[in-house]
Amino acid sequence: MKMNGKIAAGITADESYAPELLNPFVHHLELGTTYEKIKTGIFTILLLPIRVVIICALLIAGWLIAIIGLWGLKEEDLRERPVTGWRRKLTGLVCFLGKTTYTAGGLHMVIKGRQASRSEAPILVIAPHSTFFDGGIIYVTGFPSIIVRRESGANPYIGKLINFTQPVYVWRDDPDSRQNTIREIISRATSPLDWPQILIFPEGTCTNRSCLITFKPGAFYPGVPIQPVCIRYPNKLDTVTWTWEGPSALKLLWLTLTQVYSYCEIEFLPVYTPSEEEKRDPKLFAKNVRNVMAKALGVPVLDYTYDDCKLMTRAKEMNLPNANSLVEVQKLRRRLGLDQTNVEETLIDSQIICKDCSKITFTEFAKYLNLSTNDLIVQQLFRYYDKNSPGVIDFREYLLGVLATSKNRSTLDSIKIACKIYDSSGVGKLSMDDFARALNHTLAMRIEETFDIFHQIDKPRLNYVTFEKFQSYAEKKAEFAGLFSLSKEEKFKPRNDNNICPEYDKKNE
After folding, report:
1. Alpha-carbon torsion (371, 375, 380, 386), positive or negative
2. Domain that holds residue 487
3. Where does the EF-hand domain start and stop, copy by copy (predicted)?
4. What percentage of the chain reaches a pLDDT higher than 70?
5. Is residue 246 included in any domain, yes or no?
6. Domain identity same for 320 and 285
């Protein structure tokens, strides 16, 4: 079935569709020229060992000073009152060693603007957050308190330096952790005691600095003046950006330490004093501060969140079709009200939804979802799956993508849905090809592996399997134990917080 001219024009109009979703969670890094590869090889041999030795010596020195500064103090003491006297003076020494460590690694920090005092701005808001190298800002800003997981503070090495900042801890196993953290931030920011400033990365995760994503409101609940601080890395070769999809931490550290030098630019913007309306509405306060910072950085703002980051990561780990665009697809669904109607679930539970779901036109797409073909949002949604603009999409990819990433489904539930979607028989009997697609797009299994499992399940040689037979088979196999012993939240647990990028936890699990 062909689209009429009006619909086709509406779909292809630039104002109604962005050809490629701006993905702030992806970073590609390759040494593009022979010169860069040779230089990196030479510096790996000549420069890297020297820098590593110096950095390790400085880190050990800072660690020892932190131990001295914490001597005689209990954790309760660090939470109840700020350190004073000789202990506070030691923080200046730690900052000097910290900045020297970055200089030894070839990272030169360029400071613009003036840092406000605690009385002027109790909270420092830092963005964009794009790398573990951002941690160097604590030495530039005089060792402020940070927001950090309690587990990080328990680390016998880096934990000493973290504890010396008198951080606000996040207790992951406490169901009231979020509320308690907010209360502690408010208490510190409004306290008459001489607490250090609080430093917060409000994006809550690492991006590639192509935009500013949604700011979490935690830093803005106290309703006190804050100072926005922008971070830039104006280097020809970006060896620092650490995102959900990109180089590992070890590769970034290696490539950065083998550069002659790298630059980090830190700009202190004027203190932002909230209006009465912003004091009453932390989300509005956060949004307005983000706009100010985005303007200073010259980048757009996008309403992505940490939860979007988790969704995208889960989609990629499962090998869901069109994983890169599922965040935007889910947002369009919400705008269309599809998340409330459950129309997609109703479709897959029906006997036959289309003669060939691998090829449906825009008109059919709108009809199945009970939507108007004249709605620009519907047209935009279709185009996310209309690869190379042939005018047809694989409706199964759409159904699996949106259903597997909604309502906190477990992986096992997603497999069940995939078996329904790819069931060409319509009665629950999956052919080998149907079964292969279902496991390939939920467990990211290679096709050859799925064929082998199919034959193991289909001992009677019926040339089909069912989801129930697969479930019985999987329960007896150790490699599938995670489908039954772990909840979705445990299997795809959060991998970063306000100050730590995702791969740090991944590498240390």
Report:
1. positive
2. 314-508
3. 373-408
4. 90
5. yes
6. no
The reply to whether 7 falls in a domain is: no
Give the 3-state secondary structure of residue 351: coil
Q: How far apart are CA 131 and CA 126, in angstroms?
A: 12
Cis peptide before 128 (omega within 30 of 0): yes
- As a whole number, mean pLDDT of residues 5-15 equals 33
Radius of gyration of the chain (CA): 26
237, 272, 301: which is the final residue of a domain? 301
Query: Which range in 61-75, 166-180, 270-284, 401-415 is most confidently predicted, on average pLDDT?
Result: 270-284
- Is residue 64 in a domain? yes
pTM: 0.73
Count of structural domains, the chain: 2
Pair of tokens at residue 445: 């299994």
- 283 and 327, same domain (yes or no): no
Q: How distant, in Å, are the alpha carbons of 28, 235, 237, 252 from that of 31?
A: 10, 14, 8, 12
Distance CA 88, CA 81 (A): 12
Query: Which two structure tokens, joined as six digits, stand for 466?
Result: 């069912």
SS3 430: strand
| pLDDT surpassing 70 at residue 192 | yes
In Å, what is the CA distance from 6 to each residue of 3, 372, 379?
8, 13, 11
Reply yes or no on whether the pLDDT at 436 is more than 60.
yes
Spatial separation of the C-alpha atoms in residues 504 and 206, rounded to whole Å: 11
3-state class (DSSP) for residue 239: coil
Whether 3 is in a domain gets the answer no
* Among 123, 253, 263, 270, CA closest to 201: 123
Same domain? 322 vs 235:
no
Q: How confident is the model at residue 409 (pLDDT cuts 50, 70, 90)?
A: confident
Beta bridge partners of 229: 126, 268
Q: What is the largest CA-CA distance in the chain?
A: 80
Q: Is 310 left (phi over 0), alpha (psi -120 to 50) or beta?
A: alpha
